[in-house]
Automatic annotation (TrEMBL):
Keywords: Lyase
Protein name (record): Dihydrodipicolinate synthase family protein
Transmembrane intervals: none
PANTHER family: 4-HYDROXY-2-OXOGLUTARATE ALDOLASE, MITOCHONDRIAL, DIHYDRODIPICOLINATE SYNTHASE
Domain of life: Bacteria
Family: Belongs to the DapA family.
Keyword Lyase: yes
């Protein structure tokens, strides 16, 4: 259960939603019939050891609400209060997301990241408002709002979620405590306008590592996430803390060290994202495995990662002098803790 009351969620976020959040994809048994407890606990402990303060428990990987609650319970038991846990509202319907978040609340989730199902097709801002309000009203957890072009809301408004819509939601949903502001991605206009309009009353998050470190020279940002940066080891928490504590130039020196890895993930993502408008979680799972996380198989339907992209990602880590396994890629789908 959350350590705060719903009415106090924004005060909790102001005090506690600090630092960086990674993303943890669950591990499965080799026959894909159950969760891999040892693999999950290893990954949760490792992301905490790297300096991340939160992680998103990813649900866009054919996991059930009940399994996600077990995933959450193991994660909470592994690190206790050392690592905050995001529930990922990435299930297929509003009803299923509400069912899942209620289970996750009891299992130890601290905050929810609100996604929208692929089959949700709003034709008005009222449709988006109604879905968002229904989810927020159904949970006791703090909620991070997530405007991003992935949802396709630009047919309703060029920003996807207009400032007027965000204003209504903040006024009517007191447990919306943060905005993961990616309107107009890959550009930063949505982030900067959201910070300007709403930064005094809610936490504004820029999850894009390549943007936030330069922007922290000019913007007071206390949190970054959720984003898949743990594949670069402890680099991101380290540079984030440097920039936040006034050591921006030192942060930028490390920033440029990471450029080969940054370029590698940009090339890999750019190879599939424009045509799919969906994140290939197999890419992310492989990236984790390179950095010492469990890896292992994912349930169907799941995209594949071709050898050529594996080589690009591996070389990016090596060139940036980040931790990278010497294990052969054939071991990735077996995982470090097969069961």
């Amino acid at each position: 259960m959350a350590t705060y009351k719903r009415a106090d969620a924004r005060a909790w976020a102001k005090e506690c939603l600090v630092g960086c959040s990674g993303v943890t994809i669950p591990s499965y048994s080799s026959d894909l019939k159950r969760l891999n407890e040892q693999g999950i606990r290893h990954d949760i402990q490792k992301v905490s050891d790297l300096g991340f303060k939160y992680t998103l428990l990813c649900t866009e990987v054919a996991i059930t609400p009940e399994e996600n609650a077990q995933f959450t319970a193991w994660a909470k038991d592994t690190t206790g209060d050392q690592l905050g846990l995001f529930f990922h509202a990435g299930f297929g319907t509003l009803a299923e997301n509400i069912e899942a978040v209620k289970l996750a609340e009891k299992a130890g989730a601290d905050i929810a990241l609100l996604s929208y199902p692929s089959n949700f097709w709003p034709t008005s801002e009222q449709d988006i408002y109604d879905y968002t309000r229904a989810f927020c009203d159904a949970t006791e957890l703090a909620v991070m709002l997530f405007p991003i072009p992935l949802w396709g809301f630009e047919r309703v408004h060029p920003q996807g979620m207009s400032p007027a819509l965000i204003r209504r939601l903040l006024d009517d949903c007191p447990n919306i405590v943060a905005i993961k502001a990616e309107q107009g991605f890959p550009h930063v206009a949505g982030l900067i306008e959201t910070y300007h309009r709403f930064g005094q009353e809610t936490i504004i998050s820029c999850p894009i590592e390549s943007d936030i470190i330069p922007l922290m020279k000019f913007m007071d940002l206390q949190f970054s996430g959720t984003s898949y940066t743990q594949w670069m080891g402890d680099y991101f928490p380290k540079v984030f803390n440097l920039a936040r504590n006034g050591q921006w130039q030192e942060a930028m020196d490390l920033y440029w060290q990471a450029q080969p890895a940054r370029g590698a993930v940009g090339a890999a993502t750019g190879a599939y994202m424009p045509g799919s408008n969906y994140i290939n979680r197999a890419h992310w799972k492989y990236m984790d495995w390179l950095a010492g996380f469990n890896g292992g198989p994912l349930r169907a339907p799941v995209a594949r990662i071709p050898d050529r992209m594996m080589k690009v990602l591996r070389q990016g880590l090596v060139a940036s002098k980040f931790e990278c396994t010497s294990d052969d890629d054939s071991q990735f789908l077996i995982g470090r803790f097969p069961c």
